[in-house]
Description:
Layout: H1 15-30, E1 37-41, H2 43-49, E2 65-70, E3 83-89, H3 92-106, E4 118-123, H4 128-136, E5 143-148, E6 153-156, E7 159-161, H5 167-174, H6 178-194, E8 199-203, H7 205-219, E9 245-249, H8 265-273, E10 279-282, H9 284-288, E11 298-301, H10 307-312, H11 320-341, H12 347-382
Parallel strand pairs: 1-2, 1-3, 3-4, 4-5, 8-9
Antiparallel strand pairs: 6-7, 10-11
Helix pairs in contact: 3-4, 6-7, 11-12
Amino acid sequence: MVKLPPLDKGILPLQKLRDEYERALTHLLDHLGTDRVSLVLTKRLASLLTHVFVDGLGILKNHHVVECLELSDDISNVTADTTVVYLAFARARDVRAVAVHAEKLLTQEDGESRKRRLALYVVGKWTTMLSQVMDNGRVKSRFQTGELAMGFFPLDTDLLTLGYQRTLYECEVEGNRSSLVDMAAALNLLQQVYGKFGSIKYKGEMSMLVLNHLMEMHAGGSGMMSGASATQGTPTGTQRSRLDTLILLDRGVDFASVFSTPLTYEAVLDELMHIQDGFITASPQILRADDSASDVPVPVALNSTDDIYRQIRDKHIHTIPAALNVQAVAVKQRFSEFQRVSDTATAAEVNEFVKTVPQMKASQQAIEQHMNLLEYLETTTEK
């Protein structure tokens, strides 16, 4: 099982954001007025929710959920006689996919059975575009719709993501700038939890639009992202703000960096192995530098749970071998030092050292793994 980082140690205690999101979803499920819920999520949202519910979505069984499914699963997997609650991003293509899934699901109903109840809650702002998508389907009248109070998903102690992957394309090519409203709503939600930004600076047209939307939400007294039909909890904002300055930058003011070559360890890993929400997938053959090992890719966490990675992630790729060597020597010296004084060590000192052994072994394994990853990166770039 992959490890997710604890989020209460960073400059901003992001664990509180996790708690608010968990509270919002469980509150919604508890107040639907039904005892049996089939929760159906888009693949992207399901992936990001694993960063909220670190012990798995199984905890939702305590909140009337009998099964969690992905939208891509076959409709035959949906249990009969349940209320189907769809969770999706506030994107037209996601809502369209939900409508198609629901239409297929309702074809299984017979005239004598009780009509299945459907609900759709989106992460983001419900827009007229989403209403039009629902109007084009045949199941609009069957849906209860609303918004779910989630914004930026915490991936690590210093990393948040909105989860959108095509924002620039949608804004510049499709002319759809609804994601900018979602971004403003996410920033507003962040302020609800941690207090208002002391100052906001922006550069670029789209950054200005995000700021304008954010100011409109403040002027209109908009707190949570809540729709008329949504029922959800209220974040417990702090009295003293933990947020200093917000800087909004457009991609349009910095096209050059898109064409630059990334040379930090983290950037090269992302360039060649594609970091997704704090994880890469790599085969044990690469991780162990063993051709006889399995070639089936496994997830590898790249976050602050790995202390070695935390120390080398932003270093130049050419300095990584020396940095890892320093770490390896330090671990070896700790073992050697204890062996030297072990004959005269007290029981308390021995006990204290034994407590550090698992951490040192984990560090040693992490060093070896990063050395093997580095070798793979060097081999790949030399081809």
